[in-house]
Design goal:
single chain, alpha/beta, globular, binds phosphoric acid mono(formamide)ester, Asp/Orn_carbamoylTrfase, pyrimidine biosynthesis, Asp_carbamoyltransf, Aspartate carbamoyltransferase
Length: about 300
């Protein structure tokens, strides 16, 4: 049994298997419509979500399986003091696989230690990791760029709390000659633990989006993570620090693609949506296909 708690839980070869399964699902979706018949996904969201929860649930339904779970921990027995380990041990009696989001870093890892038969998928643990968003991001980049080697990737915004960014950088760093440009204000810089595993010559840091934009093959914008701030004044001061506009996109390469995990607040102006280099809505669709392939892979289900 395998879990997906952080991006490096899968080898590059395993990602290739999943990418190839995604290609197959996109080409022949009807061939997969009942491969998970009689399988149940436990969708346990202790923290709000639109895309991740609904794409997991859609993924399982499109595979012919069923879904149980909750989208609000306030309606679960967590409110009565039940521990996460106990909740997960009970879920293992009901479901075959579990996607879980939790506000605490390390919660998914803890859940994976409590089970013996049910794979756990980390759907986001606090400001730590979000490996299935990374799957969506990798599938999108692969689709538009043909692979990952030799790319210059700018990640912009909240690099301190942005779990999608921590995960993506970790995954991309395994490919050949990938260069990162970390674009953030001083207060939201990439924390050392997420930076230390990258060779120093493979990244640079700046607070100036316009200085960086012309050299990027991929620009990954991100929201300032309001829910992780202790001070609301600090959030208000930083929240609109970067706003990508069509005017700024004039300085980007003709084939630079713009990704964003969404939800967006103000950091990408809606006038950028019509730019053909904006692929953040396609990214959500690739996320659903990626989650279909992931569920199949972790359950050992074949066509
Ligand atoms: N990208 C992402 O995790 O979105 P949700 O918070 O809506 O799931």
């Amino acid at each position: 049994m395998k879990h997906l708690i952080e991006p490096l839980d899968f080898t590059k070869e395993e990602y290739e298997k999943i990418f190839s399964l995604v290609d197959d699902i996109i080409a022949n979706p009807e061939d997969f419509s009942s491969v998970c018949k009689n399988k149940l996904l436990a969708s346990l969201f202790f923290e709000p979500s639109t895309r991740t929860r609904l794409s997991f649930e859609t993924a399982m339904l499109r595979l012919g399986g069923g879904v149980i779970g909750f989208s609000d921990a306030g309606v679960s027995s967590t409110t009565k003091g039940e521990t996460l380990s106990d909740t997960i041990r009970v879920m293992e009696n009901y479901a075959d696989i579990c996607a879980m989001r939790h506000p605490k870093e390390g919660a998914a890892l803890l859940a994976s230690k409590a089970v013996t038969t049910m794979p756990i998928i980390n759907a986001g643990d606090g400001g730590h990791f979000h490996p299935t968003q990374t799957l969506a991001d990798l599938i999108t980049i692969r689709h538009y760029k043909g692979g990952f080697d030799n790319l210059t990737v700018g990640v912009c915004g909240d690099l301190k709390f942005g779990r999608t960014i921590h995960s993506l950088v970790r995954a991309l760093n395994r490919y050949e000659n990938v260069k990162f440009v970390f674009i953030s204000p001083e207060e939201l810089k990439m924390p050392d633990p997420f930076k230390n595993f990258i060779d120093k010559e493979n990244y640079e840091e700046t607070n100036d989006l316009m200085e960086a934009i012309s050299k990027l093959d991929v620009l990954y914008m991100s929201r300032v993570q309001k829910e992780r701030f202790v001070s609301s004044d600090e959030y208000e001061r930083l929240k609109d620090i970067y706003i990508l506009t069509e005017e700024k996109m004039k300085y980007a390469k003709e084939d630079c693609i713009v990704l964003h995990p969404l939800p967006r607040v103000n950091e990408i102006s809606t006038d950028v949506d019509d730019d053909e280099r904006s692929v953040y809505f396609e990214q959500t669709k690739f996320g659903m296909y990626g989650r279909m392939a992931l569920i199949m892979y972790l359950l050992g289900v074949e066509k």
